[in-house]
Amino acid sequence: MAIFIRLAEMPKWYDFKNYSSVSRFDAVEWFRQLVQRRYLISLLEARNRTPSALLKKVISKIFAWAVKNMRGIAVEDTDIPNFFGIHGYAQYLADRQRGVISLTPRHLHEHANTAPDDAHPSEKCSTAMHKSTSESVHISESIDAPLLLRDVKGSAEKIAVAHVDLRQPIALALKNFEIWFSEAKATMELQTGKAPIPRIRRWTRYGLLPYLDLLIWQMETGARISDEVMALAVHFGGHRSAGNLRSTTVIRAKELMNNNGLDILLELAVTEAAARRPIKLEN
Prior knowledge:
Helix content: 40-55%
Strand order of the largest sheet: 1-4
InterPro entries: DUF6387
Pfam family, one: DUF6387
Largest sheet: 2 strands, parallel
Number of helices: 11
């Protein structure tokens, strides 16, 4: 039977003062914060699902490394090293603004490691690589649906891969790309639909970030925090009830940590980042 901890028994790294800057976060910073916490949750979910003791150990080591700089410091300073690639978060958002960039092995790796199955990571990567090259060999190109990939930061299947014949004239290639893009986009929108604009100003009041950090700690350790204690620990602006926690914070956290939960927030972050610094494209 689970033993619920008291407010005085919170982990030593947890300090509510570290979240004092949250009210100033914009979409760019909210996405950076939430997507890294979703990654930590996905690691713990994978650890808990797998029957392999060896894989549990490997995932636990990855989690321990990733979470090291996410606790016990001001929330604006938290960051998983190289989470957005070696060129950083700003370049990641810049690439998203451009919309069309070269496919790289990193994209396939991220797709493999976010695919919804319980295979070993190396097996998943091999499976994804195999599927991407041979799955539709016997299907007519005229009726084959476009390959829509996932990545670890925005997991909705909305990244399409184009097969381009480089021998064709540029004008014809551009015309054909426009036709293909329209068809691929229509397929994506049919599959994923459109989510409402997130109300990020409310998330500070809900205590969303401290709640997620304590949720991750519970998943990691097996400890249990009652809704009553959690409400006291995470809410800004005075004490709130367990009912308020369940009807606001818990619901919003579940929505955002789902596969497609951060997609609209990512779009807002890209737009805000672009307004700050226009992307300079090479001639």
